[in-house]
Design brief:
The protein is α/β, with parallel strands linked by helices and 395 residues long. It is 37% helix and 21% strand.
């Protein structure tokens, strides 16, 4: 097998471009039928069929059979043997790591608790060790990883790779996180905010897959949002787009960690909710609050409902500005389900501008606490190069 460079405008050049378009669609969407591939790439069904046969023979694609609408269909994916990627998600209190193949099938994963105000140096050292251990358990090494995607609980400036707003993630500021981890593991690393990557996962393969534009609101220890337009992230100039947690609810309210007053986080973020309970209540983590609400504790349910009402007001402003088709709610507090989302809908109905089509639907995230990690896997795959120009020597 060799790679040939075809002159621009030639039939061979067009075929190479079509191959690359098909591979990029599979990287973006995972598994697709040949009919779906034709729709996503704009290529004719016959062209798709021919390319799939060529690249399957070359070992780049894998095909299997499935049923869609009662009819047999050919399901196409990248070949698993092309390699592995890692998705990593640092929350304020937890670390999630997943190893996946190029079909996005997770082959190993783990979660660990984190101390508050964790620092980048100690945590990246720890991550390098954990990635090595996970890969060794799979009979591989870190050097076999194609790429690593990493989600952080703060907005990231796409131009510098650093946390874009001082004060929002102490211990990680002023550091090119991707470069720092690359020094430790010797593999390509790509970093973005947890809200952006959670939104990317839900838009690519979850609750927002059918929506042309969507908002992923992540509610937990912190509050933030990822904005999706036509399946792609809108980050803004400095990566700060979607910082809904720092929308001012009351300009005379409590001081926020961002140094402003009355931000949404000071009313609906995890620490604010837990601070409403006396020490004797044992509310140390959001999981404690969720468990109490599930057990029927009225105070806990009221606190979550009030948080939903505040988040809904901020979401209404976001809807008036961004006009999304769908709102997906994720993060730890989203596990409260309708206790949280019903008041959100009520606030949205009262304060957002309605259109002839009504207001955006509010739904829960498909992947729960792993949405951001799956988004990290997706961004890693986006940067993996699959050589779709490999052709037989006899061609």
């Amino acid at each position: 097998m060799v790679r040939r460079t075809s002159p621009p405008g030639s039939q061979s050049s067009l075929r190479e471009a079509n191959r690359a378009r098909l591979v990029e669609s599979l990287k973006r969407h995972g598994r697709l039928t040949q009919v779906e591939l034709a729709g996503s790439t704009g290529l004719s069904p016959a062209t798709v069929s021919n390319i799939v046969k060529e690249l399957t023979a070359a070992g780049l694609l894998h095909t299997s059979f499935t049923s869609r609408s009662g009819r047999r269909a050919t399901l196409v994916s990248l070949a698993r043997q092309l390699g592995l990627v890692a998705g990593v998600h640092y929350t304020s209190r937890q670390l999630h790591i997943a190893i996946a193949d190029v079909t996005r099938t997770v082959v190993s994963q783990t979660s660990l608790p984190l101390p508050l105000d964790h620092r980048h140096d100690a945590q990246l050292d720890r991550l390098a060790i954990l990635l090595s251990e996970l890969m060794e358990s799979l009979g591989s090494t870190v050097g076999d990883l194609l790429a690593v995607g990493l989600a952080l609980p703060a907005s990231i400036d796409p131009r510098t790779g650093m946390v874009s707003t001082p004060g929002l993630l102490r211990g990680w500021e002023g550091v090119d996180v991707a470069a720092s981890l690359m020094e430790r593991i010797g593999r390509p690393v790509y970093v973005d905010s947890e809200a952006n990557l959670g939104g990317l996962a839900e838009a690519r393969e979850g609750s927002g897959r059918a929506a042309s534009s969507s908002v992923f609101i992540r509610v937990g220890h912190t509050i933030s949002a990822g904005l999706i337009v036509n399946g792609d992230l809108f980050r803004g100039v400095n990566g700060k787009a979607g910082q809904i947690g720092h929308v001012t609810i009351d300009e005379n309210g409590p001081i926020c960690r961002c140094s402003n007053r009355g931000c949404l986080e000071t009313y609906a973020g995890g620490p604010a909710l837990l601070s409403l309970f006396p020490p004797s209540a044992g509310m140390q983590r959001i999981s404690d609050l969720l468990q109490a609400a599930e057990d029927g504790d009225g105070s806990s349910r009221r606190v979550i409902a009030d948080a939903g009402r505040h988040i809904g007001i901020a979401a209404a402003s976001l809807c008036n500005l961004f006009d999304p088709e769908l709102i997906v709610v994720g993060g730890e507090l989203a596990q409260a389900g309708e206790i949280l989302m019903a008041p959100m809908r009520h606030s949205l109905e009262r304060t957002a501008l309605a259109s002839a089509d009504g207001l955006p639907e509010i739904v829960g995230a498909s992947f729960g606490e792993w949405a951001e990690t799956r988004g990290a896997i997706a961004i890693a795959l986006d940067h993996v190069t699959v050589d779709a120009e490999v052709i037989p020597v006899s061609a």
